[in-house]
């Protein structure tokens, strides 16, 4: 595998379910991100992890719970979601620092539908 | 709050035409990225511009960063159907890996 991978690619879940999204980056980066992309809205940053530490939580409801066990893996745990949470969830990674411009590399996304 | 505005929001043109997409902000960015996203997929990084006034070319695509590092443009020459997609710009703050995305320009190039 190369780049950033995400599983599953598609997920349909009921409002009372618990599920998790997984992201893995094979680029040796030290920062990882979760974004939400809804129709007709700009990409919304949800969480940022630097060196496995959460550095940004962009006022995300507690029904979304991120986990970053190491710098290569990122999870998004979902529980009691609402229909308006249906969206494309994108994971990205970047290399933090070193004097280079920040560049994000995205995974293919998980298309989530909440019924 | 940083805000990046892209224009136009939608663009439908014939194959062979030229086009320009704009990305504007009142804020200064340390770097700016352009991405192309196809339906159901994640954005793919096209280019990063860092220096005010910088121009970068990627085949038929020309990217320019404004002198004040607040705005950018993407020019496509002789557009092809393969250029169809959502074009996104994203600005990064100095010393922070936090990105602000524009709302995107949806381009459709008809054969």
Describe this structure in words.
The complex is a heterodimer of chains A (115) and B (111). With 115 residues, chain A is an all-beta fold. Chain A contains no helices and eleven strands. In chain A, strands 2, 4, 5, 6, 9, 10 and 11 form a seven-stranded mixed beta sheet that branches. A four-stranded antiparallel beta sheet of chain A has the order 1-3-8-7, with no helix packed on it. With 111 residues, chain B is an all-beta fold. Helices cover 0% and strands 53% of the residues of chain B. In chain B, strands 2, 4, 5, 9, 10 and 11 form a six-stranded mixed beta sheet that branches. Chain B has a five-stranded antiparallel beta sheet with strand order 1-3-8-7-6, with no helix packed on it. The chains are: A mainly beta (115), B mainly beta (111). The interface between A and B is medium-sized, with 25 and 23 residues.
């Amino acid at each position: 595998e190369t780049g950033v991978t995400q599983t599953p690619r598609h997920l349909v879940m009921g409002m009372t379910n618990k599920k998790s999204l997984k992201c893995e980056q094979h680029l040796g980066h030290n920062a990882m991100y979760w974004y939400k992309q809804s129709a007709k809205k700009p990409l919304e940053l949800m969480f940022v992890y630097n060196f496995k530490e959460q550095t940004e939580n962009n006022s995300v409801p507690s029904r979304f719970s991120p986990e970053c066990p190491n710098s290569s893996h990122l999870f998004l745990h979902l529980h009691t979601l609402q229909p308006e949470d249906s969206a494309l969830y994108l994971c990205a990674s970047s290399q933090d620092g070193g004097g280079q411009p920040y560049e994000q590399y995205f995974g293919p996304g998980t298309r989530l539908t909440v019924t | 709050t940083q805000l990046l505005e892209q224009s136009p929001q939608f663009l439908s043109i014939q194959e062979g035409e030229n086009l320009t997409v704009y990305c504007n902000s009142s804020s200064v960015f340390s770097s700016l990225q352009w991405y192309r996203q196809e339906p159901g997929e994640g954005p793919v990084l096209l280019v990063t511009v860092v220096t005010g006034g910088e121009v970068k070319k990627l085949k038929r695509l020309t990217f320019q960063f404004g002198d004040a590092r607040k705005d950018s443009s993407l020019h496509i020459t002789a557009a092809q159907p393969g250029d169809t997609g959502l074009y996104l710009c994203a600005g990064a703050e100095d010393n922070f890996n936090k990105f602000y995305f524009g709302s995107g320009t949806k381009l459709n190039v008809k054969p």
